[in-house]
Amino acid sequence: MLKGKKIVLGITGSIAAYKSCLIIRLLKKAGAEVQVVITPAGKEFITPITLSALSQNPVISDFFAQRDGTWHSHVALGLWADAMLIAPATACTIGKMAHGIADNMLLTTYLSMKAPVFIAPAMDLDMMAHPATEDNLRLLRERGVGVIEAQSGFLASTLEGKGRMEEPENIVQQLSDYFARKEGDLSGKKILITAGPTYEKLDPVRFIGNYSSGKMGYALAEECASRGAQVVLVSGPTALATKSALIERISVESAQEMHDASIREFPGCQAAILCAAVADFTPQNTAEEKIKREGNALHLDLRPTPDIAATLGQMKREGQVMAGFALETCNEAAHAREKLERKKLDFIVLNSLRDEGAGFRTDTNKVTMIDGKGEEALPLMSKQETAMHIVDKLAGLL
Ligand code: C5P
Questions:
Q1: Ligand 1 centroid to 363 CA: how many Å?
Q2: Is 210 designated active site?
Q3: CA 367 to CA 346: how far, in whole Å?
Q4: Which is the closest atom of ligand 1 to the Cα of 279?
Q5: What pLDDT score does 157 carry?
Q6: What does each C-alpha distance from 366 to 106, 141, 273, 276, 362 come to in angstroms?
Q7: Which residues of the chain have pLDDT under 70?
Q8: Over the range 362-377, which residues count as b (16 or more CB within 10 Å of their CB) and which as e?
Q9: Span from the CA of 122 to the centroid of ligand 1 (angstroms)
């Protein structure tokens, strides 16, 4: 995805500047062209000679080339680039970016930049947690700057690792994912998504249901469609509407109906995301007439519903990719791993009900993606952004 892409790499004065060498190597290996712009403080940490050797381009740091006085045009760089990445980005540079202070070549380049800008903050924990830095990062995010923050491990303290620059591999991956999204990396693919709750009918007016709103599944459907996929959305009852014309919705009510629609559609799809909160049990019998309020207690006989994910796991052909969800309240990671194996999923997205802002009915989510190799904990973010990360992972497997 990075082949032929023109990247302006901004380097600022942080101890993490040595990691920029690795970023350049990875970008070059992926086929990108790299133009380094460094701040005066950045040069205290790493020499332009190293950077120009790796990037195979002269490094720009001053407004004028010192020897002959040639003007370095930040405007031309702004037009040339397909993306600008500032890594490491110090609190100082982030603050200046947020407030339009253009006192060096890197900052003038940022202000002239026509392409999307990404920053990988690097500073100590206190500086990162300072309200000034938080405000500046918020301002930049609102302006569309992509902030690439280091992910902490699953259930690790949220402060652990905060401020540390994200690893070069992950930074370059995020840049690559951005281009993949932009270029419709899922075009020509058909993806099955289950979403929402199921209603298990007790009588003509009552059902057993759950609090799922369908928001996560619908966000996934829109994300896949925006990247060119044709989406079959098998949806339980929700109040949501779909936006993209590439989404075909099949509305179902019960787990059995969701199962039937899913097994019918799956063979024609390259991937499935099982996001629905499927009832695990359904009434043994549905009463023909409204159940009367009689006696002191009502006993319901319930039988298990079919496990859609497990059935699709059995049907899965070589090359088909499946992702599932797990909503857990205790022993989260162990339970999720067990489901990953039993349902033959390629990866599972774990929500913990212990996390505020995660799970049912909210507009935000905080998830950990787990596969056979390891886990990736994402911070609290909107369900749209969460969908973007999940689909990035799925697209990488297709
Ligand atoms: O076993 P559990 O319900 O926790 O597993 C969750 C995952 O399995 C989710 O991806 C969910 O959509 C899927 N599932 C399913 N059919 C069921 C139960 C769960 O597809 N009957």
A1: 21
A2: yes
A3: 16
A4: 21
A5: 39
A6: 34, 18, 17, 17, 11
A7: 65-69, 151-162, 357-359, 361
A8: bebbbbbbbbeeebbb
A9: 39
